[in-house]
Design a protein that fits this description.
Number of domains: 2
Number of helices: 5
Mean pLDDT: 78
Structural class: mainly alpha
Shape: flat
Low-confidence stretches: none
Distance between the termini: 12 Å
Strand content: under 5%
Helix content: over 70%
Length: 143
């Protein structure tokens, strides 16, 4: 690729709407969980969800693409992928599987020691989603 085309960075309005939409989604999910009677999990979702939203937004804001290029995520979701995209998706899933397996081991050890781990499946799903998105962005940026 040539480096003569300038990079595109999201403007302040774009970042504002991304943050707003992310906060609304996390707050909505936490509200649904709080209305079901599990306020401790809702507080944890707000804390962890806010941290995940900030981490993903920082990674997405740092991600720059060349003008006119189709982002890798759009190519992967649209379908016409090449071997580089397949390798990138495979590596992202491998990292996610490794992290989730580690989380399962920790949850099983905690359960074996007598801890209350009813929220572990929900937490592992959030961790898996955040890991998949973050690893995809990081690997795409590095390759």
């Amino acid at each position: 690729m040539s480096t003569d085309t300038p990079t595109v960075k999201p403007g302040p309005r774009s970042v504002f709407w991304r943050v707003t939409a992310s906060v609304v989604v996390v707050a909505g999910l936490a509200t649904v969980v709080a209305h079901s009677g599990n306020t401790a999990m809702a507080a944890g979702m707000l804390t962890g969800g806010a941290l995940a939203v900030v981490a993903v937004l920082v990674a997405a804001t740092l991600y720059r693409r060349r003008r006119g290029d189709v982002p890798t995520g759009a190519r992967v979701l649209a379908g016409p992928v090449d071997e580089r995209d397949r390798r990138l998706v495979g590596r992202s899933w491998a990292i996610t599987g490794f992290v989730v397996t580690g989380g399962l081991v920790v949850a099983l050890l905690a359960k074996g020691m007598g801890a209350q781990v009813q929220e572990a499946p929900a937490v592992l799903l959030w961790v898996a989603l955040a890991t998949l998105v973050t690893s995809f962005l990081v690997l795409d940026r590095r390759s």
